[in-house]
Amino acid sequence: MRRRKLVTQRPMVQRNDLIGLGKEKLAELLAEQISSLPYHRQKQWVRSHLPDRAKDTSASESRRASLFDEIEEFCAQSRSGSFVSWEDDYGWDDRYGESGDHEKFEEWIELFTDLMKGALELTRSGRHTEAAEAYRKLLGLLKEAGQTTDILGNHGAPQDSIDLDFSKVIEAYARSLLASPSGQSVDEVITEVLPVAKKYRYVEGFTGLAGALDVQGRERLKERLSRAVEEGLKADRPYCPDEVEGLIALARVGKNQTEVLALKERFASRNAVYLREVLSHYERKKDWNGVARLAQMGVKHFGHHGEFAKALIKAREALGDPSAAQEAQIAHFLQEPGAAEFAALRRRSEALSNWDAVFEKLLRASASWLKTQLLLAEGKEREVLEGAVGRQSRMDLDGIKLVAKYAVARLSEGVDLAGFKKLEELQKRLTRDKDESYDWLRLIFQKPGTLTRGEYASLAGGMYRRLVDVHLNSGKSSRAAPAAHYCAIVAELSRLLDEPGLWADLLGHLKQLHGKKRLIWEKLKAEGCPLA
């Protein structure tokens, strides 16, 4: 039923009412209303309705005299909690039921951004003493806002939402300090700005500091950073010292790409990003010894995952060592046992005429669930059938699901599934789904089936019984629905094969073990399973 609009929701002011006020009065009222909006909303209105005013820089020029007072007031308001707002884990604001709480965060971001732009303008106009103090106050406030909930609530790192080039901010900060009449030395400037550059190292903070220094200043910074790096290495910490990013920034500013690469290579074992970049450099040069060395480093320090393992395989192959490439591929597969990786390993091993030995090695090294997949992929169905009873207690849920789906898919192969909703859906998923388990099923189906219809039916019934028990024994009411879904598959399969005993066995098992669990029987009835 459509909700009626309340009388109180009708517009109280019409267009003609406003026209009657006259231009001057209307402009005064509109300006008053706009001024009451949060700062970022005012800016949006100006951009939409007064684009020339939005582009006009004269306003920022006129604000210079009062800018420092505005910064002081902004910092005081921030620390008093005026901009505190909250988000829950799902991204909703309004923690305490107050509407528009998120507006406070957006207003703070817009105010901070514009005040910092004002500080940058002070640097450009040569008012360095005021600029330096503005940077101190604003960057100090930003640091606090990221460390406590007293300023912005729980919105996280505010700098991620600020549309500013922090490299330019830090460079201007350092330049104003160097140019201030107070006459700070280069070392004093580095001491003050270095912690800020380090905090914003991932947004080119060190680059900003380096860009403000002359050649001698950069040498002083390099000495400071190098000492910090060496001290970090002596402490035997496994991670990369933050100051390495500063040394790289100095090399970049000095246009010394050779040094940039050397630094990244030196610390590649401690920083996966550096390792990837240096590895890409060697791959572009087709320096396969270098690729192999760095890829081995990646495997050692960051695991056999993806790019490092694949780069090692490619390098060993390019170096004419197919056996070493195969060993790397085996190690990669055992870490990431995907269907595509298995097929690639089988092709390589067949080319080397040692697939049987490699397959046995994989079986010995594999967990029970993976061993089942490997046996099926090689068409060794009978071994799976014979070992299923002994192994299924150690198989994980995904492994049991795979075998169950496989047996049903074999029984459904080439059969008209009209009227069998569950079986038809499974057949469609086997064709379309990109999930890893379906990739394995498609690979397994490349081998012909060797079991009888009765054996496939027995395998399917046993696996689905196991799945049903896992769900119902969990004690969670939410598990009744998936358990009933699996039961419905067995019921359809029993009907498809004209094997009533298949469903009767599972139904008897349910009555014996789960007869008092009311919810499962309600779900079975909803699924249309025969309960008699």
Question: In brief, what are we looking at here?
Answer:
The protein has 532 residues and is mainly α.
Detailed description of the structure:
With 532 residues, the chain is mainly alpha-helical. The protein has 4 domains: 19-53, no CATH class; 62-87 and 99-270, no CATH class; 272-365, Tetratricopeptide repeat domain (Serine Threonine Protein Phosphatase 5, Tetratricopeptide repeat); 371-527, no CATH class. The protein is built from 30 helices and no strands. The chain has helices spanning 15-19, 23-35, 39-49, 51-55, 58-62, 64-79, 101-124, 128-147, 149-152, 166-179, 186-199, 205-212, 215-234, 243-253, 257-266, 272-285, 288-302, 306-318, 322-335, 339-351, 355-365, 368-377, 381-391, 397-412, 421-432, 436-444, 453-472, 480-497, 500-514, 518-527. The two termini are 43 Å apart.
Order of secondary-structure elements: HHHHHHHHHHHHHHHHHHHHHHHHHHHHHH
What structural class should be given to the helix and strand makeup?
Answer: mainly alpha
| Distance from first to last alpha carbon | 43 Å
Question: Into how many domains do the coordinates divide?
Answer: 4
Largest sheet: none
Assembly status:
single chain
Number of strands: 0
Helical percent range?
A: over 70%
Cα-atom Rg, whole angstroms? Answer: 34 Å
Instruction: Report the β-strand fraction as a percent range.
Output: under 5%
Query: What best-fitting shape do the alpha-carbon axes yield?
Result: flat
